[in-house]
Amino acid sequence: METNEKIRNTLAFQTSTPVNIKGKPAKRFMSVYRTVGCAYNQCTMCDFKHYADPKITDNNLIEQHKQSLKQLKEGKYAQFDLLTLGNFFNDHEVSPKVRKHFLQSLAKIKTLKRVLVQRFPF
Ligand code: SF4
Prior knowledge:
The protein has one domain (3-117). 27% of the residues lie in helices and 24% in strands. It has three helices and four strands; from the N terminus they run H-E-E-H-E-H-E. Strands 1-2-3-4 form a four-stranded mixed sheet, covered by helices on one side. Strand 3, helix 3 (96-107) and strand 4 (114-117) form a beta-alpha-beta unit. The radius of gyration is 14 Å and the shape is globular. It starts with a helix and ends in a 5-residue tail after the last strand. The relative contact order is 0.21. Residues 38, 40-43, 46, 48, 85-86, 120 line the site of iron/sulfur cluster.
């Protein structure tokens, strides 16, 4: 596999932190998916474009998601922040097919109480 393809199959960032859900301490896992980049791309303070790749495909995103699922299936996390390098609801950045796959697979993880995604009004 080419190095670039390996990178396309790898999340841009992941981390875990404490979180509070309805007054109770819990753990949050956060993944930032490497996408084709933000369609808006106008914010001068934003460096997300440096992590994006215009050749990212649905299959690359599904491969990245496997890394998140591996962590989430351990059952330690009540919240998952599913972040992208832009807008989760922009069809050019994340296709409806991939959005559906992400959400259906997350719905099977019973320890998850909350899933957060990013939406911008453009
Ligand atoms: S990812 Fe967010 S902050 Fe960056 S250019 Fe797009 S809208 Fe702006």
